[in-house]
Amino acid sequence: MLAPGGALVHLSDVKTEPRSVDGLPHPAVPYEAIANLVRDYLGPARRAGRGVLTQCTPGDEATMFSMSFSAPHLFGPRRADFEADLRRLLREASAPGRFSERVPSTEVFVWSAGTGPG
């Protein structure tokens, strides 16, 4: 489907590689505990904008209020309570408030018209 001389580049992170924080200076972001806290406040169905994601999705996101599934307006009058509980959870995981994270490697696939993946 590529025009002559055209190319397609596909970039993605490697989903299968281990991403331990071993050897890094701070503890890992407590993603599972954060996801549980969001579920405690908002229920098991992940939000998507103004709707919900009925099939749900895995939670690897860190900045809670910037994500559509946990945007500030979804907490309504419980927003301050959620924020206080989130801050407490993060302090318990790392008193100085610093976390380490190992980002995944990136895969790059390039297809040129007539040459296939390379």
UniProtKB/TrEMBL annotation:
One MF annotation (Gene Ontology) recorded for this entry: methyltransferase activity
Organism: Streptomyces alboniger
The UniProt record lists the keyword Methyltransferase: yes
Keywords for this protein: Methyltransferase, Transferase
Record's protein name: Methyltransferase type 11
GO biological process: methylation
